Structures are given as C-alpha cells and as structure tokens.
Amino acid sequence: MKHILKRLVSAAMLLLPLVASAEVDPKADARAVVVSGNARFTVLTPQLIRMEWSESGLFEDRATLTFVNRKTEVPKFKVSERKSSITITTDKVKLIYNKGAKFSADNLRAEFMLGDKKVVWRYGDADSLNLMGTTRTLDKCDGWNLSPSDPMEPGIISRGGWSVVDDSSRHLFVDTPTHWQKWVECRPEGDYQDLYLFAYGHDYMTAVKDYITIAGRIPLPPKYAFGYWWSRYWQYSDNELRDLIGQMRSLNIPIDVLIVDMDWHETWGLRRTGAKKDEYGQRIGWTGYTWKEQLFPSPANFFEWCRSEKLKTALNLHPASGIQPFEEPYERFVEEYGWTEKGKSVPFKIDEQKWADAYFSAVLGPFEKIGVDFWWLDWQQWKTSKWTKDLSNTFWLNHTFNRHSEERGNERAMIYHRWGGLGSHRYQVGFSGDIMINWESLSFLPWFTSTASNVGYGYWGHDIGGHAFKVRNSQTDPELYLRWLQYGVFTPIFKTHCTKNKNIERRIWQFPDHMFYMRDAIRLRYTLAPYIYNAARQTYDTGISMCRPMYYYYPESSEAYDMKEQYMFGDDLLVTAVVKPVDKVTGVAERTIWFPEGKWYDMVSGALIEGNQTLSLNYTVAENPYYARAGAIIP
C-alpha cells in the first residue's frame, strides 16, 4: 500500500442519510434587490447578479425549474443612481444599466477584472470561450461526433471570465396543496427578460458552488449506486439471470445492481419485420407493463432471490405510449384516473397531477411492492410535452420520479435517466445513452464526464464497453473492453451495458486472456469505495462533482484545457484512460500525461513523479494508470 498522507474522513460523516436540501427559498432577501423602473437586479453574490426586465413592471419571485433558492447571504454592494443610469458595485463586479428600455447591448453592461485585464460584458455578447456543460444523450455519438440534435449545452463557467444563463422562458415551480408540494406552470404572458450573470473570472469552483447554492444541492446517491452494475439488452429469463450472478459469485466478481432491460415485459412482436406503430407513433411493444411470463413466471420469487443476493434491481421503462388496453395494469389505472373512454388507450401525460398519481399508484406501485428498487427511465421519444408548452419531458419525468422515490420512504431518492437541462443535477443518477463502440468514443468520455461537472451533473452512468457497433457484424475487442472497464473505475457510475447483439459480449469470463485484468478493474472499484464515497459526500457539501476538469485547479495553465483525456477524480487522484491498443511488438500502449505542480505517485509502478512536466508513459494491458497526489490517503 502506498503510504500517502493528507487527511482522514470521519466514518460517521460518510454514513449520514443525505438527500437534496428542501430548505430553499426562491424569494431573495429584500436587501439584495434593486429596482429601477421596469428593471430589477438581485445581487446574489459579489459575482452573481440576477437581471430582470418586465414590460408590465411585475417580477417573478417563484422558483423556476433551474433556480430554486435566491435567499443567499446578502453581499456588500453599493448603488449609485443618476438621472439616466444606475450602477451597482460589489467588490468584484460593476453593473451599469441605462434606465428605461428593455435590456440590450446599448443599455446593459458589466465590468470586472480577469487577472490584470479589465473585462467588459455587454448584453447579447457571444460566450465563445464557454467551457460547456453536458447534453441530453449520447445516442448515436461516435467518438467526438455528437448527434446534431443533441449538441453540448453551455455551462456556467467560461475562459472569458463570464457566462450568462437566460432563464426567461424556463417554467415555474408553483406551490400545490397536494403531496407533490410543487408542480410545473408556464411563465405568465408578456415581454419579460430574466438573466443571471456569472462573472467569476477563472475562479471556476466558486462559480460552480454558487450555482449549486441557487439551483439546489446535488444529492448524495445511495451507497450501492457506486458499486458494479450489470446491464445488457438481452432476453434473459429469471433462471438465466440467476446463473449469470452465480457465475460472478464463483469468480469472486463483486456486484451491487442488476438492471433488467425491456424484455422483462411483453413486447408484442416488437422485433418482427414490419412491426406496427401505435397511435402515438411508437412501435407496439416499446412501452410495456405486463410481465413476460415465459421468462418471469413468478416475479415475486425473482425479486425475493435478488434480495437474498443483496442486489438492488431496476426495470427499464419506455412510457411514451401511455397505458394501452392490452396491458395488465390498464383496468386499475383507468379506474383510479377516472378515464371515461374504457377500452381506449390513455395517452402519456406525466405533467398532469391526476395522471401522475394514478400512474405511480396503479401502474408502478405493484411492481415496487414486490421489489423494484428504482426505475431506468429510458425516454427516447419527443422532447417536449404535448400538454404543457415547451416543457421538457425528460426533466419532468426526472422530477416526478425523484419525488415519488422520496415518497416511497427512500432516505436517498434514486432514479436513472437522462439530462433534461439546467436543474437536472437535483435528480441523479444520469444515463448517458447509446454511444458507439470504438477507441474514439472511449477517448471522448473523460472530457465529456468531467465537463458535465460545470453544470453540477456529477453522476453520469455510461455504457461501459460501448452500446453498439458502427460497422455491422463486428466482434467485441477484448482489449478495448478491458480499457473501458479500467477507465470506468474512475467514473461516477460503474455500469456495463450494450444493445441486443450476439457479437457484443459483456461477461468477462468469455475473454480468458483478459478476464483477470477485467476482474482486477472491478475489484479496484471496490477497493477505492471509501475514497469514492467521500468524494460523493464532498459533492453534496460543496457542489463540486467527483470528476473535475484540470482547469478547476490550474486555470492559468494551457495544459489544463488541452489535455482532454485526463481529469481529477476527487481531490487527490489524477486519472486518464488508455485509448489505443498496445503495440504488437512491445506489448505496451503509450499514454501522454500532464503532471501539474507538486509530486505524484504512479499507482501502477510506485514511481514518484515530479510535477510541471508532460510525460509519455507506457502501460501493458494489465496496468490501469492513475496517479495520487503526494500527501493523500488512498485505500
């Protein structure tokens, strides 16, 4: 064991049952508010100012889907007013507004220092140096090529020193007397601007922390979420899943989570050529709530076995087709919902409280009663609601399922779904989607995963090994799969998965030449469990996710931005991925690493490396490179 000393973490602290804080107040302290005619400014921190303009002169104090807490400690600032302008000055930022008109480049600007350089932001300026946030899904992502329909969304930090979040059209959270407590509502009609200026220079971590302060904490997932997840799109029977887990046990492969993909339910001939679509444009069988009895003759017994194996279990859902008459829960649902068109399908309407109540009670409740621990929400359909204008279906599914998980009595709510836009960090864990299987995709993921921290989305779960081949009839490359597993050790969620393809293999014992190295990666994940869990607790406390871009720590070093395949994993581990195969002659693969200031231990070789240099190091397939900061404790 490497003797690297820095600090010890209280075990008691790690065991606290934490959820996202409910102690939030969307109405700012009156002392932080400055009103000038039809404009209102709220000084939330010395570097974060809310800027509103309203044609009606009315302003919004309710929470939005993004921002739920504006009751911050009021910073020191002064206001100087002239006949034609108003200036708000904190110890970091000067904001100037020429009174009267709607915000424009001519009447709204801010000034602040970036090092020894004065920066001037004007309304409407393009943030060309934004360090980005994340995207809804990696479906069809091929290496660094994202789907055009799902580009990377901006983050709240920028090399230019400022970023702006335009919250003008974001939906509202409104109080409701029901058990939901909050529900969604569209913004009132009228011409309205609602923007947040983040002028933090290169103090990136403070910017992210303050964003989480006003957008809500990142919850701490349950401990089991950080173990090994098994998932594969395959028509498993309950007995085959028992055999699968039995094989893992016999090989001493630890596992915590078992995902059962969509073939747990009847698919009504989904895979047939020319399969019909329903009235919602979905292939019949994609949505399903009826157990496939040939595979699961006794679901209750299956879940009892899962509990005996200490496995947490999730089922896959595609809810877009609503509740069809041929589904087992249909009669229960229509009775509870009050559906009068008996015999006809009930459309998906998660943004109606009555529909959501009946859905969770009559449809999902019986599954949860016999043992479903959480749901994999595999929503891939239309992006916005057909009922509430422009509401993201992804976001609202996240919110309702998260709230339902809390109501089930879970100390830490748990869902598994995609990013639904700013504010989604309150609903973890994330499913990143169907990425292509190749070395380029593996190369892309370190940057993608750490960059998501810029919007607080700290718990992406990827398809380790990749989802699908780009070229038909390809075969699983065991070395690529091994390197993906080794990288996966240092990701928030350690889950293998792939599509339904007999050529794609995820059972490590099918690769005898690589199996023990693969098992080493899974075991390393468990060896590092105290460190990972501590990093997760820090995420809850500080808003800084466990996967952190290098520029969080070294914002003035160009290498921190250029070396995209490395990042900090927690406070003290510098990690990377080996993203090319070993040389057939030497048996090693080269990995170029930038070591920042200080001293770093190579946890593979034990070598002590001096910082402030870039090195090309070589690793065999048996070696998983990661580096510990001198002065740290690593289990």
Helix percent reads: 10-25%
The portion of residues forming beta strands comes to 15-25%
Tally of separate helices: 12
Secondary structure class reads alpha+beta
Distance between the termini: 8 Å
Largest sheet: 6 strands, antiparallel
Explain the overall architecture.
The protein is an alpha+beta fold. The chain has helices spanning 11-14, 204-215, 238-250, 299-308, 330-337, 353-370, 393-407, 439-451, 478-488, 515-527, 529-542, 559-562, and strands at 33-36, 39-45, 48-54, 78-81, 85-89, 93-98, 108-114, 117-122, 163-166, 172-175, 182-185, 192-198, 228-230, 257-260, 312-317, 374-377, 430-431, 460-461, 494-496, 547-548, 566-569, 573-576, 589-595, 599-602, 608-610, 613-619, 626-629. The radius of gyration is 26 Å and the shape is globular. 45% of the residues are buried.
